Amino acid sequence: LSAMLSDPGPMQNGETMSPQMQDSRNSAGEEGGGAAPSAPPLPPQPPPHGSPPPPARPRLVFHTQLAHGSPTGRIHSFTNVKELYGKIAEVFSISPSEILFCTLNSHKVDMQKLLGGQIGLEDFIFAHVRGETKEVEVTKTEDALGLTITDNGAGYAFIKRIKEGSTIDRLKTVCVGDHIEAINDQSIVGCRHYEVAKMLKEQARGEPFTLRLVEPKKAFDMIGQRTRAPKASEGKMVSGKETLRLRSKGTATVQEVPSEFEEKATKKVDDLLESYMGIRDPELATTIVEAGKDKTNPDDFAEALDSVLGDFAFPDVFLFDVWGAFGDVKNGRV
């Protein structure tokens, strides 16, 4: 099933998505029957600067289901992830806070299909909702727990990867896709993934602490699975010739599928985010690539990155590694 355009006109690349359809007709040009013959007609209003009136913007409609099973619903008129969750919740008469994350074109807890900052215009959206809550006692035996954290863009951090042979890997009740709700009974709902990763990193070795986890509600054919992120590349998370780019700030836009450089560079940056910060975030990686793809030296790149992501305070060594990754991709070394 594919996204449907409610207007047959073409969507222009980069055009923003509007919550309501815009009427391109000029009401002053319509006849108002019954007017007195002596009344002079209103003069036609020329478009500004002599340009033609803008075409009506088509409304993008996406199909969605609850991952554990539901009828198919249709959603539209959202410009960011929080609004997307709100639309899905409205269709299925649930609270937006029930939604942990969404996957594209698969009902399984598949981190290769995770909805990030882009949705292909033909993608089918599956919403994973809250299931069982569980508490796990963890004792660090080494500096790293073996977790990679991401978040859903709406206040929930969850586990995206478990390193084989790590401390967490030995705790068989902890699974990829579990939402981390609290650490030692301290709620972390609303924290960003990098904040959660920092809290976990700061837990002392040899001292037990408690994780309160919420697993996604499972369909019958998913019960008993312990999904682990594969070692292969994350893969493309969009389909079709165009994608809807969701932004945490600003309006969503329809744009071309990322170029080969952007796709490879984003994958490398996402790898570096995991290496330096213990997080994976394709939207953040995409923003970093967009900030640096046109820059000619690392100083300009650092300045551009600071203007859009200054709150992260990335270390200089990370910025130089990202700049080096751009060079590797451009020179065909990746």
Automatic annotation (TrEMBL):
Residues 1-59 are annotated as: Disordered. CDD domains: GH2_GIPC, PDZ_GIPC3. InterPro entries: GH2_GIPC, GIPC1-3_GH1, GIPC1/2/3, PDZ, PDZ_sf. Residues 13-27 have a biased composition (Polar residues). Residues 135-202 form the PDZ domain. Transmembrane segments: none annotated. SUPFAM superfamilies: PDZ domain-like. Residues 38-57 have a biased composition (Pro residues). Belongs to the GIPC family. This is PDZ domain-containing protein.
